[in-house]
Amino acid sequence: MPTFTGLPLRLRDLLPGARYVPADADPTVGAVRLRAASVEPGDLYVHTDEFDFAGIELAAERGAAAVVTEHPVRGLAAPQAVVSDARAALAAVQQNTTRASSPLRVMRVGGASGGQRSATLLAAIYAAACRPVGLRTESLEDDGEQCVRRAPRSLRGPEAWMRRCRLGGVGAVIDQAIPVVEAVTAEPAQLACVTTLRCDGLDAAGRRVWPSPHSHRESVLAALGPITAATQLVINADDPDACRLAADHRGPVLTYGESGGADLLVAALEQHSGGQSLLFCFGPESACVQLPTPGRAARRDAAAALAAALASGTPLMQAATGLEAAPPTPLTMEPLVCGQRFSAWLDTAVRPGDLADALEAAGSVAPRVLAAVRLSASLGVAREQLAVASRMADRVLVHGPAIARLPEEAYPENTTPVDDRLAALAVVLGLADDGEAVVIAGCVDAEIQSDGRQADRATAADLLRRRLRHDDRAAA
How far apart (Å, rounded) are the C-alpha atoms in residues 355 and 349? Predict the structure, then answer.
């Protein structure tokens, strides 16, 4: 029997219907053997002889990782997978290992920001076209059959996820390229999509973890994996650093953006509190798409997903239909609706660049913007946040540990420091008038925050309900 290719495979994935002895056994196997005398440590032995059980004991003595049998043997050293038909189980193992060793089309999406939303939108395009696809982002892993949450900023590698995708019959996977401080070069991808290389040396929490923008950019590129002449490169034409990367690439390149020379051209037809209408042009074809989120960053990420789908062979109209049907990304300009007559959004933005994107989106649909901002613990980053927020918002409420260390003159005229997060949310939602926009930045994707309080989503909704009850009583 041939050995499995790649990493050892989980037997429970190969034979999900078997009964295991002991019950908590979860072996991984590296080859299939029908002759006990040829078993090597880590192999799977399939016992098909109904009359001679000596082979089972010999296979266990030789270090078999597991034994597949119709009749369990008491006291055996190796785990046993008990099945009703050993030959049928052998056929199932052969079929599943063939699927598990088949090549996957790997599409990697990433950049300094926007990678998670672009990867999720690309997966939605595949799902709308009824094409099975696996998705891995910093918050979830979907193998085509089951979607599970990942721990924030988990460094667990993609090998086990890709193995489950192969076993599930998935032919393509979308992997968000997540830059880490100690960058490890990922395996090559057939398609690499770059959202932006505008790097600032900060992680998503606003901590300065890279010594320079250059080292941050190198980490982003390392997360994308080796870019060879065989790699289909999808590039943001509005990003100068990404364009320089494309200029050095010897393989196929597809560009997207609002610049006139982009292969996929995107233009905003209309923006409003409920989102924006976009026109995509690709050669002689065009398509109109309604997005639930306004702003430049939303256009960029949607165009990245659409361009990656086009580079994978999806027709423009089919890709546009899937993009329009995609659900909004949680806490990425997530609308907060509770009967109020002003717009309100929740966003995870802490880094100055992400904060600018969120405030730009709100300012594109409202004449006046109010913001609640969580300041970084770093004084330098906090000053950058204050500069961005005071320039792009009309009224800013800030909080965080940096407040106690910043002098009074560091706060611009339209910025007010408050004691805690609850006070910032209460004031900014209480001051908003009809037609204005509120951005609650620095949200955390958790039901309970580290200080034990409920998440911003629930807190803001509760504050809005209280305001509405107060307004109703005043009107009565």
Answer: 5
| DSSP-assigned letters across all residues of 349-399 | --SHHHHHHHHHHHHTT-S-EEEEEE--SSHHHHHHHHHHHHHH-SEEEEE
Edge-first strand listing for the sheet containing 395-399: 334-335, 343-346, 437-440, 369-374, 395-399, 415-417
64 burial level (CB within 10 Å; 0-12, 13-18, 19+): buried
What distance in Å separates the CA atoms of residue 109 and residue 224, rounded to the nearest whole number? 7
At 234, list the tokens. Answer: 């999808």
According to DSSP, the residues that pair with 277 across neighbouring strands are 270, 290
From CA 381, how far away is CA 378, in angstroms rounded? 5
Q: 173: which DSSP letter?
A: E
Flag whether the pTM goes above 0.70: yes
Q: Which 3 state secondary structure label does DSSP give 438?
A: strand
234 touches 174 (CB < 8 A): no
CA-based max dimension of the chain: 89
Spatial separation of the C-alpha atoms in residues 15 and 42, rounded to whole Å: 17
SS (H, E, C) 262-289: CCEEEEEEEEECCEEEEEEEECCEEEEE
Q: Give pLDDT tens digits for 44-98.
A: 899 987 777 888 999 999 999 999 999 888 889 899 999 999 888 888 887 766 5
What one-character-per-residue DSSP string does 188-224 give? P-SEEEE------SB-TTS-B-SSSHHHHHHHHHHHH
